[in-house]
Amino acid sequence: MDYDEIRTNVSKNLIILRKRAGMTQVEFGEKFSFSDKTISKWESGLSIPDVATLQLIATEFNTTIDALIKSDGIEDQTETQNNKAFNYNTFQKCCILLLLLAFVWSIAGLGYVFISEFFKKLLWPIFLWAIPISSMIIAKFNSTTIKSFVVKVASYSITNWGILIASYYSFLMYNISFTPIFFLGIPIQLLIILSAITTKWQGGVRRLKKHKDRTNNENKQIQASEEKTE
Hints:
- By secondary structure, the protein is mainly α.
- The protein contains 9 helices and no strands.
- Helix 2 (25-31) crosses helix 3 (36-44), helix 6 packs antiparallel against helix 7 and helix 7 (125-144) runs antiparallel to helix 8.
- The two termini are 28 Å apart.
């Protein structure tokens, strides 16, 4: 890695650190006892901080000199930290999910036993109702954690048809056959699929727009810094 490459990497990483901290060049300079002109030179790649200053910046932002001089050092470090936080949060949510599912099926089992013992009636459709309730819990977990398109469609579909099946057999216990209820599931299923596809498409458009806006802003700030230096 030659000097020019190090200088380019440091300038890019300093811009990333400063922006993430929500600081202007003046504020960043004051924090480390440098003028905004010096910060502008660092960020435009015209000069580079000395080792002592790099160590000071690295300590302040909880990183290392090695990360500062690498091309994607800061971004890789941030991604690693985010992955660790994501994995821990996901593990916690998975535990909560399993506890909720266990609670739902425990209630269904207890309800079945209680009604069987005291009312002498086998209310087995109670287990059918546990299926759509469980799938709704999974859908909520998916929307806040993994955000999978397949899991979203599957969980809402199971909820849809689970409610219809549970309702049908609940009516059937009272000798009421209500087969047409299943026709309701077709338009609801179509709405679930169309809604999921639309949401995914809109999310992709928003992410693309944010990426373009962020890139344009960074280019404008770098250009402004170069013009200021000149």
